[in-house]
Amino acid sequence: LQSLLDMMVAEEESLKERLLKSIALCRKELDTLCRELQLDPCEAEEESTILQMEKNLRTRVEVMLKQKRDRKQELKTLQEQDRDLCDILCTTPFCIDSNAVPSLEDLDRYRCHLASLAAEKEQRREEFVSSKRQIILLMEELDHTPDTSFERDVVCEDEEAFCLSMDNIAALQNLLQQLEARQSLNEAVCTELRSRIVALWERLQVPVEERESSAVH
Q1: One Gene Ontology cellular component annotation (predicted)?
Q2: Axis-axis angle for helices 149-156, 166-204 (nearest 10)
Q3: Which residue, of 8, 41, 95, 118, has the fewest CB within 10 Å?
């Protein structure tokens, strides 16, 4: 009986030692996780058995590890969206440490930044589509074939693949203004020529029927 009791005591002391080691490791890991997650240090539990304390600490470690994984995964997702938007808008990515665990405030700022970029992308896309439509109509009216790489990109390239950088938007507006100027010049020349034709008709006393047959042109 004494041998059995000694063995039971030894097992309990061994269990206690394992629990104390586990508690020390959990507290160390919790301190690290609190720093990484930028949270206040975890306070030690009072009036709790060693077994319950070890269980509670392990549970808190698991919860905080999940928070860490979730934040890192969200950061990865946001960075992927950021890269896609930066490729389209030709802007620099959001400045954030990819190796560190982002704080909740960091993630909020990142989401706001991406929402702003997405709105800017839509605004530029609408401007591009509107300008492209006008440019195509003007080129058809002027019988102008795209003769530069930029003009071919504007007219022929897939709208989703067009880089919406500020330089490209400015070049797009410049092209549109050039075509509008050529159209205005052509219209002015046409108006002048029509006036001269009418004056010549009057001087030559061309019949109304002949004038109407030519007026269609």
Answers
A1: mitotic spindle midzone
A2: 90
A3: 95
Q: Identify the pLDDT of residue 108.
A: 96
Q: Which residue has the tokens 């070890």?
A: 54
Cα–Cα distance, 152 to 163 (Å, whole number): 13
Q: How far is CA 101 from the centre of its chain?
A: 21
Nearest to 179 by CA among 206, 214, 201, 154: 154
pLDDT at 11 over 90: no
d(CA 186, CA 176): 15
State the distance between the two ends of the chain, measured CA to CA, in whole angstroms. 123
Token code pair at residue 54: 């070890």
Cβ atoms < 10 Å from Cβ of 58: 16
- Distance CA(89)–CA(162), nearest Å, equals 10
Distance CA 154, CA 132 (A): 7
Cβ atoms of residues 68 and 34 within 8 Å: no
The dihedral sign for the CA sequence 15, 20, 21, 23: positive
The C-alpha R_g of the chain, in whole angstroms, comes to 38
Mean pLDDT across the stretch 31-56?
82
CA distance 180 to 29: 68
pLDDT band at 161 (very low <50, low <70, confident <90, very high): confident
Separate counts of helices (H) and strands (E) for the chain: 6, 0
